[in-house]
Amino acid sequence: MKTMHLFANCERQRQIRVHLENSERSILRTVKRFILPIVTLPMVQRSTTNHRPRAKAIDDRLPKLVPTFAGQTNHQGCVARNLCVISLVMLALAANASPAEGQTLTERLVTEAPVKLVQQARQDGDIVRGAILFHQGNINCAKCHRPVSESDRLAPDLSRLGQEVSDESIVESILLPSKTIRKGFETVSVLTVDGHVVNGSIVSQDDQKVVLRSSQNIEQLITFEQDDIEAIKPSAKSNMPDGLANELKDRQQFLDLLRYTLDLKQRGPTDDAANEDSLVRRELSDETKGIVLIKQLNCSGCHDWKTGESIPPLQHGPNLKWSAKWLNPDYLAAFIADPQHTKPGTSMPNMLSHLDDKQRTESATALVHFLTSLANNSLTAPHAPQSPVDLQADGEGILRGEELFHSIGCVACHSPRNDLAIEQPLEDSIPLGDLGNKYDTNALTIFLKNPHAVRPSGRMPNMQLTHLEAQDLSRYLLQASESDAKTSWQIDSALAGKGKQLFSQLRCVNCHADVIDTAPALPHPAALVDLDPNGGCLSGESGKWPQYSLDETDQQQITAAIQSLPSELSAEQEINITLATLNCFACHRRDNIGGVTTARSHHFQTTNLNLGEQGRIPPTLTGVGAKLNEKWMRDVLVNDRSIRPYMKTRMPQYGAANVNRLIELLQSHDRLSETKFAAVDDAKEMQELGLKIAGNQGLNCVACHTFRYEQSDTMPAVDLTEMAERLKKDWFYQYMLDPPRFSPNTVMPSFWPNGKAIRPDIAGDAKTQVEALWQYLLEGRQARAPRGLIAEPLKLVANDEAVMLRRSYPEIGKRGIGVGYPNQVNLAFDAEQMRLAMIWKGEFADPSGVWRGQGHGTVRPLGDNLIRFDRGPEIDDPVSPWIVDDGRPPHHRFKGYSLDKKMRPQFSYEFANVVVNDYYVDMLDSATNDPYIRRILTLKSGSGETNIVFRAATGKTIEPFGDGSFLVDDRLQIHIDEKHTGSIVDQPDTQHLRIPLKVNADEQQLILEYRW
């Protein structure tokens, strides 16, 4: 009642009462006269949406509320009218108020009833766009919610949720993932004895160890010894990240994603997803692993498979003439004398183990003299390795080499290295040994450019390096060497002659061809099947036989192979042996054998995160012979053809001689089940339907796929116009009907799950639609461009009012806020790091990068004279400033913005206890009529006097030119008001313009002007 009395005594209420008694029209006029001005006061907080449509909405809704009270004149009617007016005020405020400043899409959606969101998703959600979003890299729901074995499952399989899970609970799971955590997917916090806390889900646990899947990186498994654990506590946080909806462009995208998710649940699992056994990793048999070892150790160089047979084929050793010419002779001598000690893990056996130390050294030296005499006819070895690479002298090249080594695929086989190129050992790594003692920079560069000239059997593949890349890589790898320049060798003809005899006697010619023309006949060793598994090479003892460094597992596998040698290998055995010998299983998976390991996964990178796992993990080889046409497969394996430029890991080249048989086997062995194609009565009509399906009125294939080498706005998925050339028709058919069956990591949505079209409004059943797409793709490069491929540029222009766009901007990120002003000056504010990020003149912005596709591009500033400012908050502690990175400063907080009558924003943020209001006005110079920006920062401390510093600019040169003005890099003029003083601080390679500030409880202003 007190509120009512106060309201009744108000003169404004008296005026409202008079108008209410007149007519319904006067009521509406009064509300618009008195209510709307209240909610449209200057600087009132609001969103970037123009207020005029909201005002119209009030016009539409008021007549429904007011007539009940019109014409009432008694006391009750007055009170009723007062209540009506209060309701109208609240209605107007609600209609016109913006979401809370800085409010995210998630925060807005959680205020809506889940049942309403479900209804709207079913009614207005686009299931095709939702399918694309579900698999898209920045959302990548499919990464965790994928059909994998129960033990490897990261999140529930949405197709298996069942009807007991309500649609509304799915909404809550997306928006509030930690509210209810499904059983089996709980997370824990592990506290270690040294005080570290790691969050994740337990993969396995026993008395000795706990294996945790990290919440920070679900690909990472962390092993803890039980003795190192202080406590394990249940966590209330879900592995599913908070704020996932904030990765979406708007509410419509959320409805699209929800629509597809609901459809997954409703349809249930596919037949293949139900067979979890097919998803479990498996290993090669011991017999097959033994054959691989026999091939890698080149046992066939001495022993027949069976009498008169040579399976597997001979594995040629390195070209020793090349080695003698380019490698350090000291290293060669040490390696021949004791291969395993010089390079642990080498497949080269010790041929001199039966000799004493002196004899081994003499024999190895003689062999090197012989090989060196063949490499050149001069008296001096041609190359003495250089001194270690100087890190300071070629720092940039070394850094490029480090990036190459850890991205193009080297670490698929070899251990990763730290910044000094020191190995960080991983299991199953092929060691590189002491490269600095072996190569100089020139020799290693030559080897890396063409490894097949040295190792013709393809054990080291050709990574298609340019000369600069090979040079950078060799400098990086050699920087850890501590060896000095080596002395030259004088070739001794007598020792060379002795070395030639040893080369024949030791049967070196069996592995190393083209060294000597003829070799004396030697007794032929027994066939493999007749060998004693406990004797000779396999005994581990020294003798007049090659001594290999085999562990117990190696011996068991070779023994298993020898004891079960088939008369001939099956096609599948040959394929697996070849893939294992060339180490293809380090990157590729075939029939659930091999694939990228968790420890190496993060080294497989992509240039486009929207592609998800498919954009960085090499494709499966399961059924690849049934997938690819033979010509295309040969082009990939022999001619370096590629369709995945977004994948940083390169497809190695092993040489035609080493893969020709593999191509034949894959093409003849891999088969699909019988495929029944849809009938084609009218090819032209089918092509027209396929054209529609590929466009944005159909399944929108061009939203993701490249077309005639032109990439889509969303992601550069494989080129549509190469499909028919690459793929066999029956594989295309079956893949389109069930993509996860062929590629669990694919971002390709299931448009025909369980054989039913996801878009029944498009003509034809599932097979008819797939056939139509195939008929269209048969046109290849001649195919007409689908609708939606070509987009006209967009422009945002400021006219009478400022315009704003909150999206990603170049070098700012997702929390960029762009503002275009009527006087043709523009800015972008970084709400992540609380800084003015860039200013420019002319037209405002092209938003097509965030409006089209899936909306995850960047806004492109238009106009000209763009000036960028450094990263990091402008206001900071003068003594201990934040060390700038790409994240959010821990002591800064963005609080939103408000708008004045011309829609110009004032940004609000805090640093520690200092509140900052940051307001920009577009001005015109009175003399030249040139536009410039005036910036008014209002600062106030919430607790006593606080010293802060404001970074006004950075540049290579900053020069004062009087009256508080400074010139930055001869481009930007900054003027500081007379109440404050700027100082120039020198930093390495740059200068900073800083303004010290003392802020207290009284507001103060810092005014800057930017002219450029």
UniProtKB/TrEMBL annotation:
* Lineage top rank: taxon: Bacteria
- Per the UniProt record, one Pfam family is Cytochrom_C
| InterPro entries in the cross-refs | Cyt_c-like_dom (IPR009056), Cyt_c-like_dom_sf (IPR036909), Haem-bd_dom_put (IPR013427), Multihaem_cyt_sf (IPR036280)
Keywords of the record, alphabetical order, are: Heme, Iron, Metal-binding
Q: Where is the Cytochrome c domain?
A: 125-259, 285-375, 396-481, 494-670
Q: Which NCBIfam families match?
A: CxxCH_TIGR02603 (TIGR02603)
Q: Know the name of this protein? A: Cytochrome c domain-containing protein
> What organism is listed for this UniProt entry?
Novipirellula caenicola
